[in-house]
Design brief:
Elements: E1 2-6, H1 11-21, E2 30-37, H2 40-43, H3 54-83, E3 88-95, H4 98-109, E4 113-117, H5 123-129, H6 132-139, E5 143-147
Parallel strand pairs: 1-2, 1-4, 2-3, 4-5
Helix pairs in contact: 1-3, 4-6
Family: Belongs to the universal stress protein A family.
Protein name: Universal stress protein
Organism: Maribacter cobaltidurans
Length: 156
């Protein structure tokens, strides 16, 4: 079985990692863990360091975003391999738009299942922001598992 696990380091994607780690897998299961990051200057202003010159902000922001994404996929890989020693796990960090890139990566690997966390946006936020998990569930050519955080764990 080929599984694509797409994570972003959020508490919801961490829940997806935990859920996947508890699942039994057939022999020869391959799990590819990816983290897709967009232009950090547009999506994560906190990734831009204070100080330095204006010319190197972009390069530093991209480098910081990529390093954070690499740490995220490595941590997820360790969780999965600790609980499922027989599973083959690979990791990758990909630059692009998550809604599109996750689908492209799943198709390229021949994924039979895509696993993502739900960000739990309300209907109005989903309308304004769009939902990566919702888009993937509608457009994927394979099964999609959207892992929700238990209501008891959601901060109110």
């Amino acid at each position: 079985m080929k599984i694509l696990l797409a994570i972003d380091g959020s508490e919801y994607s961490n829940t997806a990692v935990e859920e996947l780690s508890r699942m039994p897998f057939p022999s020869n299961t391959e799990v590819r863990i990816i983290s897709v990051f967009e232009n950090p200057l547009l999506t994560a202003p906190g990734a831009v360091p204070i100080g330095g010159t204006l010319g190197n902000y972009y390069e530093e922001a991209v480098s910081n975003a990529k390093k954070m994404a690499e740490d995220i996929v490595q941590n997820a890989s360790q969780v999965l391999q600790k609980k499922n020693a027989d599973v083959s796990v690979t990791t990758d960090v990909v630059n692009g738009l998550p809604k599109i890139t996750i689908l492209e990566e799943a198709e390229a690997m021949g994924a039979e299942l895509i696993v993502v966390g739900s960000h739990g946006h309300g209907a109005f936020k989903r309308f304004l922001l769009g939902s990566v998990s919702q888009s993937i569930s509608v457009h994927a050519d394979c099964s999609v598992l959207i892992v929700r955080k238990p209501a008891s764990e959601i901060e109110k």
